[in-house]
Amino acid sequence: MTKYFLHRPYPVPATEEARAQAAQQLASLRESTNAPGFGERLARICELARVALDMDRAFVSLVLDEQQHFIATANFDVESTPREIAFCAHAIMQSAPLVVEDTWTDVRFRDNPLVQEPLNLRFYAGTPLLVDEHPVGTFCVAHGSPRVLDDKQSVQLAHFSALVRSELQVLQELENFRRQATLLRQTERLAEVGGWEVDLEARQILWSREAYQLHGADPALPVSFEQLADFYPNGEAERLYRAATRAAHQRASTRTRLGLGQDLGHARLTRRSHVTELEL
Question: Which of 23, 203, 214, 240 meets the CB 3.0–4.6 Å disulfide criterion with 225?
Answer without folding.
Answer: 203
